[in-house]
Amino acid sequence: MTSAATPMAPVPYRVTGRRDETTDTVTLTLEPVERPIPTPLPGQFTMMYAFGVGEVPISVSRIGPHPRDGSTPGPVLEQTVRAVGAVTGAICGTRPGQVVGLRGPFGVGWEVDAARGRDLVLAAGGIGLAPLRPVLLRALSEPDAFGRVALLIGARTPADLLFTSELDEWRARGAQIEVTVDRPSPGWDGRVGLITALVPVADVDPGRAVAFLCGPEVMMRVTAEALTGRGIRDADVRLSLERNMRCGLGWCGHCQLGPLLVCRDGPVVPYTRAAPLMTVREL
Amino acid sequence: MEETGGITSASLSRERFFAGMPEPHLAALAATADSVQVPAGHRFFTEGGPARRFWLLRSGTVTLDLQVPGRGAVVVESLPPSSVLGWSWLFPPHRWRFGAVAPERVTAFRFDGAAVRELCAADSRLGRDLALRFAQVMLDRLEATRVRMLDLYAHPGEPR
């Protein structure tokens, strides 16, 4: 187990499943080879190590289940990775049977339990759906614990949508799923436009709703403005920031954003805390 | 298109677009409007056609499109419920610059553009109020378009 004594040592996890989400994004199923890392909370991330190549922060896109037969020593994890560089390219290239390393989990998650009894608005831009998926799955698994759940998804094109095989199931289990794309492709009969256009159709009570946002920073900024404009309180909006996380422990300072070390104080932060920082140039 | 009757100032006052508008102005506008519903596939207007009306969507989505040679009608934006559809009726030469289609059943309030222009010409306070409300709609759509132009979801290695 990653412990305070060995937080920099990666724990081996075997890739037991691999699903191509898009042309550049892959979801890997990971099982601990021996010892697991502590069970992540929704919104937390791990430092994922492609041995011999390097390490990158990757959010957890599914937590569990923990097989009842004890066939694995810890919960199965899914992590969704977009190949944007050498390390993520190597991770996306891994096949079932290969081993990667995990450190963590790190950071502050969505604090889902604090949202119990409330309506949920989950606004995801691009690969930002990955860290929100555990929140949605938690809410769907405990339908009596949460109010209405609206998932708003923005993507570049229909081909860039993630978890498309699960959207109908999520709808069937009670979630409102609304999707918009920037660029339609032939045959697309869904919405076209910015994700902010989905805010008015979210079937929630703004007075009792909590909103979780993840995506490019500008997308989160304009979506947060649209949500608060609809009546959701600033204090009830949380968003997941992305910076250059290296150590995951607040030691190295690479992920500093003003007074925050995003790996330690984030990645999920209240909008009230993030908003003043998001418009500061070169911060 | 099926006309489902006239509307009142009270029904307009419940719409976000008209929030806070004085009752006499709402009553004047309501007199130019009726309530309609259209089936999926209905085309509200075609690029280049005369722009005589505008709509306030109450349910259903409308897509704006543009004919592109070799690609057909390309959808550029979807308008959700509560959106205003159409502003070309307000500006000369009063011709639509895009087309609009209902991909699903839509209900809307439909306004007579020429009659609303006459109201605005006769009552400058109403004209200013309505112009500012349309300006806000345009501002919102301009900002959304600018953000889309950033292509935020593109692969980092892709030239933009």
Key terms:
heterodimer; A: alpha/beta; Elongation Factor Tu (Ef-tu), domain 3; 7-stranded mixed sheet; 6-stranded antiparallel beta barrel; 6 helices; globular; B: 160 residues; Jelly Rolls; 4 helices
Task: Walk me through this protein's architecture.
- Chain A: Keywords: 2Fe-2S, Iron, Iron-sulfur, Metal-binding.
- Chain A: It holds the Pfam family DHODB_Fe-S_bind.
- Chain A is of the alpha/beta class and 283 residues long.
- Chain A has 2 domains: 11-106, Elongation Factor Tu (Ef-tu), domain 3 (Beta Barrel); 112-278, 3-Layer(aba) Sandwich (Rossmann fold).
- Helix content of chain A is 18%, strand content 31%.
- Chain A is built from 6 helices and 15 strands.
- Chain A starts with 10 loop residues before the first strand and ends in a 5-residue tail after the last helix.
- Chain B has a single domain, classed as Jelly Rolls, CATH 2.60.120.10.
- Chain B has 4 helices and 9 strands.
- In chain B, a hairpin with a 3-residue loop joins strand 5 and strand 6.
- The interface between A and B is medium-sized, with 31 and 26 residues.
Cα distance spanning the termini of chain A: 35 Å
Give the C-alpha Rg of chain A.
Answer: 18 Å
Number of helices of chain A: 6
Any guess at the CATH architecture of chain B? Answer: Sandwich
Structural class by secondary-structure content of chain B: alpha+beta
Q: Report the end-to-end length of chain B measured between terminal Cα atoms.
A: 43 Å
CATH hierarchy, class of the largest domain in chain A: Alpha Beta
The amount of helix of chain B comes to: 25-40%
Tell me the radius of gyration of chain B.
17 Å
Q: Main β-sheet of chain B, in a few words?
A: 5 strands, antiparallel
Percent range for helical residues of chain A?
A: 10-25%
Mind telling me the CATH superfamily name of the largest domain in chain A? Nucleotide-binding domain of ferredoxin-NADP reductase (FNR) module
Question: Uncertain runs of chain A with pLDDT below 50, 5 residues or more?
Answer: none
